[in-house]
Design brief:
CATH superfamily of the largest domain: NAD(P)-binding Rossmann-like Domain
Structural class: alpha/beta
Order of helices and strands: EHEHHEHEHHEEEHEHEEHEEEHEEHEHHH
Largest sheet: 7 strands, parallel
CATH class of the largest domain: Alpha Beta
CATH topology of the largest domain: Rossmann fold
Helix content: 25-40%
CATH architecture of the largest domain: 3-Layer(aba) Sandwich
Amino acid sequence: MKRILITGGAGFIGSNLTKRLIVKGYSITILDNLSKQIHGEDQDSLLIKSIKELTTFIKGDVRKKADWEKALQGQDVVIHLAAETGTGQSMYEVEKYNNVNVDGTKKLIDILENKNHQIQKVIVASSRAIYGEGKYNCKEHGIIYPKERKGEDLKNGRFNLICENCKIELQLLPTDESSTINPSSHYATTKHQQEKMILKMGKSLNIPTIALRYQNVYGPGQSLSNPYTGILSIFSTRILNGNNIDIYEDGKESRDFVFIDDVVDATILALENNQANHEVFNVGSGVGISVEFVAEMLKEKYNSNINLEISGKYRIGDIRHNIADLTKVKKVLGFKPKIDFKSGISKFTGWVKTQEIQEDKYDASIKKLKNKGLLK
């Protein structure tokens, strides 16, 4: 299986994965629409420049069946990364997220079911977002998978999860792959649909399929101009523009940040290990880092005097915490994250300092959320 189609291959994860696979001797074809939100108005970002000459590049759209048919010719494997991402944006661009994430994937499945092809494996990029609030423990009632937090609690500054039965505050646990699926944003819903469709197709057609539930991926090369990307990039751009950072809730909300090199490692392990077939895996660091700590670290790394303001604001669709349980991916694939957060953020900020300072578009994105009633 030496010929691989990577959809979204010019993106952050895709470009890094592409370069590593080429070194390993794979032949890579990329299908990417070069979204202006990621690649800029000229669609000529550093990401695309880094891989375009190394691959067979097809500028196309996963929403178009003809582009899929062209890209799939002669391929052995599909690594399907192309997707609209971003929790907040998904809540008001519902049709776009459906068209790309769900309907685009349906077109791939339709071709595999009804056309001649030689695809031997499909890997789809899923997301930890499908778990919603994830897994918790109640001292009285045991394991609980909480529903979305109530607006009234958030409004009154009660951000932590409580047991609906006994009203005791819940204890966070790492979320494993058998946890209840409970999407809290439209983005999460589309990723869950995408994952389910791919896995079901794989079993019905006897094509090995794998879903990788990526956590919060970061690292050098991440877009610094996209206001809907990860908070490390958003915060970095604000700091370098001399703008204060508004930290939502109480700043104690946490995320599992996983370095890009570790994500690439896990993806290649899934590609090359047949024990991964027809399985789902968390891909993360297994460590929760608070948003307040992220902001403090970035401020220190950039030697900035901007203010960090904990505002108590909250965004509809956001979760409180997430930590990936890596037991399965370690056991089956032998994956072990190599880059801890302090090392990773040093690598990231070191790279950011070599880049031109980007326009800070964050305020405009927040204005949209406020206008839609999604930011309180």
